[in-house]
From TrEMBL:
It holds the Pfam family DEDD_Tnp_IS110. It comes from Paraglaciecola arctica BSs20135. NCBIfam families: transpos_IS110. GO terms for biological process: DNA transposition. InterPro entries: Transp_IS110-like_N (IPR002525), Transpos_IS110 (IPR047650), Transposase_20 (IPR003346). Residues 8-146 form the Transposase IS110-like N-terminal domain. It comes from the Bacteria. This is Transposase. Transmembrane segments: none annotated.
Length: 341
C-alpha cells in the first residue's frame, strides 16, 4: 500500500492516524494509543507525516523523523477550513492530510530539544516577571493600610520592606509577613538573574547571536528568543514573509476597486512580536538624539504619526533587517546620515 501522506491528530493519550494515497483517498483512519503510535509509524514506509503545530508536536516530529519520515507541522488555523461534518478526531485527521496538499501552505520547522529548552526559559521568565509584578503591587497595597508608602521601583520596594522589618513600631505579625514577602521577592529576582545568565551564554556562544546583538533594540532576551524560534530565518524566502509571520503587516480588506488597510494582523508568534515592539519603542524614544539613518527615519515619521504607530513601523522595519542580516550572516552597521536604507 503506497501512501503519499500520513496525518496524525495529536492528543494526550489517544491519537488518530490517517493515511492517504496519491489521489488523497483515505487508506486507513484509525485510533492509536500513545504507547502504540511510534510502533505503528515504524511499520510504515518512510513518507511525509503531517501534524498540527500544537501541544507536543515538536517532540513527536523529532521521534518520527528518527524513523525516516519527512515530518511537516502545519498551523492549526489552516486545517479548520478543511474539516467536513462534525468535529471529531476522524474528520480532523483527514482534514490535516487535505490541508497539507495546498500549494501555498507554510509549514512550521520542527524545533530541536535545545531550541525548546531556550524557549522554555523564556516562558518561565515571563511567568516570574508576572509574579514579581503581582508581589510588588500586593506588598504596596497591603502596607499602605499601615501608612507605609514608598516610591515606585525595585530599589524603593526593597528599601520599604526592610524599613518595616527594622522598625520596632510594627507588630511581629506584620514584620513576619513582610519578611516572607521580601524572601519571595529576592528569590524571584535571583531566579530571573539565573535565567538571563543562561540566555546570555546561549547568545554569546552563537555567531548568529552576535549578529543580532549588533542590531538596535536587540539585547540578550530578544536575541535568544529569535534564535530559538527562527534560527537563521531559513524557513522564510524573503524579509516580507518574516514580517508577515510576526503579524507586523497591516490587515487588508479589498473588493473591486476599493482597498482598505487596517491595523496589524497580529498573526504568528505573539511573544516575539511583543518583544520586538518593546525593543522598537526604545529605538524610537532615543531617535531624536541620534543621527544615523534609522533614527532620522523614525524622527521624520514622528512628525505626522503618534508614538505607538511609529514603534510598530520600526518593529516591522527591524524584522526585515533581522532576516536580511541572519541570512547574509553579516553584522549591522549604522548607515551614515545622507545614505538611504
Amino acid at each position: 500500500m503506497k501512501l503519499r501522506t500520513i496525518s496524525v491528530d495529536l492528543a494526550k493519550n489517544v491519537f488518530q492516524a490517517c493515511g492517504v494515497n496519491e489521489h488523497i483517498k483515505a487508506q486507513f483512519n484509525k485510533k492509536l494509543k500513545r504507547s502504540e503510535l511510534l510502533d505503528f509509524m515504524g511499520q510504515q514506509e518512510p513518507t511525509m507525516v503531517v501534524m498540527e503545530a500544537c501541544y507536543s508536536s515538536h517532540y513527536w516530529g523529532r521521534e518520527m523523523a528518527k524513523l525516516g519520515h519527512d515530518v511537516k507541522l502545519i498551523p492549526a488555523q489552516h486545517v479548520t477550513p478543511f474539516v467536513r461534518g462534525n468535529k471529531n478526531d476522524h474528520n480532523d485527521a483527514f482534514a490535516i492530510a487535505e490541508a497539507s496538499q495546498r500549494p501555498y501552505i507554510r509549514f512550521v520547522p520542527v524545533k530541536t530539544e535545545f531550541q525548546q529548552e531556550i524557549l522554555c526559559l523564556h516562558r518561565i521568565r515571563e511567568r516570574l516577571i508576572k509574579n514579581k509584578t503581582a508581589l510588588s503591587n500586593q506588598s504596596r497595597g497591603l502596607l499602605s493600610e499601615f501608612g507605609v508608602v514608598f516610591p515606585c521601583g525595585q530599589k524603593a520596594l526593597l528599601g520599604g520592606l526592610n524599613s518595616v522589618i527594622n522598625n520596632a513600631e510594627y507588630s511581629h505579625r506584620l514584620q513576619n509577613m513582610v519578611i516572607d514577602m521580601l524572601i519571595e521577592y529576592e528569590t524571584t529576582l535571583k531566579r530571573l538573574k539565573g535565567i538571563e545568565q543562561q540566555l546570555g551564554i546561549f547568545v554569546e556562544g552563537s555567531e548568529s547571536g552576535k549578529i543580532l546583538l549588533s542590531i538596535p533594540c536587540i539585547g540578550l532576551i530578544n536575541a535568544s528568543a529569535l534564535l530559538a524560534s527562527i534560527d537563521k530565518g531559513q524557513a522564510f524566502n524573503n524579509p516580507k514573509e518574516f514580517a508577515v509571520w510576526l503579524g507586523l503587516t497591516p490587515k487588508q480588506h479589498a473588493s473591486g476597486n476599493i482597498s482598505k488597510m487596517g491595523g496589524i494582523t497580529k498573526r504568528g508568534d505573539r511573544y516575539l512580536r511583543k518583544q520586538l515592539v518593546h525593543g522598537a519603542r526604545s529605538v524610537v524614544s532615543r531617535a531624536a538624539k541620534n543621527t544615523d539613518a534609522l533614527s532620522l527615519w523614525a524622527t521624520k515619521l514622528r512628525v505626522t504619526k503618534p508614538f505607538n504607530k511609529v514603534a510598530v513601523a520600526m518593529a516591522h522595519r527591524l524584522a526585515r533587517l533581522i532576516w536580511i542580516l541572519l541570512t547574509r550572516q553579516e553584522s549591522y552597521s549604522a548607515t551614515p546620515t545622507g545614505v538611504s536604507t
